């Protein structure tokens, strides 16, 4: 579980928790967020962006909390295993009003063995990516990749990913990128969501 420090600019925002959905309301919000970003905003898909991968994906959400209670889902990502030990991340998205929201720091988040030139400034996207890869690492991943849209390559490079090759998906230029797993130490889920997460993991 990742907690961000309170940002005084956002009145009432206590912290953002990044985790798997713990109830059906959060799961519905996860799909609604994906639809609003990938169908309505980006027009990458027409009616639905849900696909076969969702049957074996682990959904991850960023939830803001007010006065200690969970509020809206503000960001999403999914992870899935393609081949034994080879995981992918996808459908990374953050609600528009929470983009570039990075006035908080998580100095100990990335592994200390990995050289970081300055104190790492988090964003919701960075938190989601961190949670996605560190959870896959915990489940048993030796390779973690994603197809990244061109405008986001810089973000992933900052988070210890490297480009493997250029590809076209949904008629849009993407880059297959791979994470440096040393920067993402295996991290389990520490909340009651673990009970629910069994339905995603199928273990
Ligand atoms: C990509 C995305 C998840 C980044 O979320 P975020 O929490 O804002 O992440 P960051 O604050 O670290 O910003 C990442 C980059 O996006 C830029 N950005 C963030 N919000 C933006 C906005 N509203 N308009 C333009 N650029 C924006 C940031 O300036 C930053 O650019 P940089 O890498 O050149 O510094 C978010 O912009 C999004 O949901 N985009 C639509 C869906 C998408 O593209 N998904 C990724 C598929 S690979």
Q: What would you say about this model in short?
A:
The chain has 203 residues and is of the alpha+beta class. The protein has helices spanning 24-41, 124-139, 153-158, 193-201; strands at 13-19, 57-66, 69-83, 86-94, 143-149, 161-169, 172-179.
Secondary structure: elements and pairs:
Blueprint: E1 13-19, H1 24-41, E2 57-66, E3 69-83, E4 86-94, H2 124-139, E5 143-149, H3 153-158, E6 161-169, E7 172-179, H4 193-201
Parallel strand pairs: 4-5
Antiparallel strand pairs: 1-2, 2-3, 3-4, 5-7, 6-7
The structure holds coenzyme A.
In words, what does this structure look like?
This protein is α+β, with helices and mostly antiparallel strands. It has a single domain (13-187), classed as Aminopeptidase, CATH 3.40.630.30. It contains four helices and seven strands. It has helices spanning 24-41, 124-139, 153-158, 193-201, and strands at residues 13-19, 57-66, 69-83, 86-94, 143-149, 161-169, 172-179. It has a seven-stranded mixed β-sheet with strand order 1-2-3-4-5-7-6, with helices on both faces. A hairpin with a 2-residue loop joins strand 3 and strand 4 (86-94). The chain is globular. Bound molecules: coenzyme A. The site of coenzyme A (COA) has 17 residues, from strand 4, helix 2, strand 5 and helix 3.
């Amino acid at each position: 579980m990742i907690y961000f420090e309170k940002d005084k600019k956002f009145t009432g925002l206590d912290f953002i928790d990044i985790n798997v959905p713990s109830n059906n309301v959060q799961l519905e919000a996860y799909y609604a967020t994906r639809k609003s970003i990938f169908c309505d905003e980006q027009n990458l898909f027409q009616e639905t962006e849900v696909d076969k991968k969702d049957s074996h994906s682990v959904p991850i959400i960023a939830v803001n909390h007010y006065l200690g209670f969970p509020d809206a889902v503000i960001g999403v990502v999914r992870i899935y295993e393609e081949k034994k030990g080879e995981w992918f991340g996808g459908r990374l998205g953050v609600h528009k009003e929470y983009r570039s929201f990075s006035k908080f720091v998580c100095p100990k988040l990335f592994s200390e063995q990995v050289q970081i030139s300055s104190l790492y400034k988090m964003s919701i996207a960075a938190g989601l990516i961190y949670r996605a890869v560190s959870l896959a690492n915990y489940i048993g991943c030796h390779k973690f990749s994603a197809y990244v849209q061109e405008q986001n390559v810089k973000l992933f490079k900052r988070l210890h990913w490297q480009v493997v090759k250029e590809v076209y998906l949904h008629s849009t230029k993407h880059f297959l990128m791979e994470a440096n797993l040393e920067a993402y130490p295996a991290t389990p889920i520490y909340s009651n969501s673990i009970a629910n997460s069994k339905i995603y993991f199928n273990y």
